[in-house]
Amino acid sequence: MHTTSVSTKCSIHHIFTVCLFTITLIACSSSGDQIRVNAVAPDFTLLDQTNEKRSLSDFRGQWLVLYFYPKDFTPGCTTEACSFRDNWRQIESMGASVVGISVDDTITHKAFAQKNKLPFTLLADPEGVVAGKYGALRLFMGMKMARRHSFIIGPEGRVRKVYTHVDPDDHAEQVIEDLEALQKAH
Fold first, then answer.
1. Does the predicted model carry a pTM greater than 0.90?
2. pLDDT tens digit string along 126-163?
3. Active site includes 77?
4. Residues 10, 19, 28, 77: which is the catalytic one?
5. Mapped to the 3 state alphabet, what secondary structure does the chain carry?
């Protein structure tokens, strides 16, 4: 009887583990369709770290590096932001702007930008609406978070490059290489 009890407990534990894993996969799924190259970039208007409204149309006529990231002050997000900071002048000299978006609020963005001396715009998307439009929204244990996705948007407002597998350590350098190639082809 004792072995049956242990066997039953193991079966229940196994079923519980499988159910939890399945729920986690569903919860972490992306909401919204993934944006494709040459699609018109979805418009947005969000508040930046200084509480000013910023829209996609503010960047019309120039190249835009739009990157989504999960959370201010986390190691990977700090690495990625600082890499863009360290390469910002080169990106800017190429006629491009850098904009980061997460579901954090403007107060957190302001502190994050100040602490890391970020010279570019961070936009607050607390409801995840814009992240959803770009296929970069995920739910994790009931919390909305942005996936680490990036987009290069051309001066005409079309998505020219999509990144869904981003390494925070070398992403800025990869963006620079791709931006150079896209500008030559443009």
1. no
2. 999 999 999 999 998 889 999 999 999 999 999 999 99
3. yes
4. 77
5. CHHHHHHHHHHHHHHHHHHHHHHHHHHCCEECCCCCCCCECCCCEEEECCCCEEEHHHHCCCEEEEEECCCCCCHHHHHHHHHHHHHHHHHHHCCEEEEEEECCCHHHHHHHHHHHCCCCEEEECCCCHHHHHCCCEEEECCEEEECCCEEEECCCCEEEEEECCCCCCCHHHHHHHHHHHHHHHC
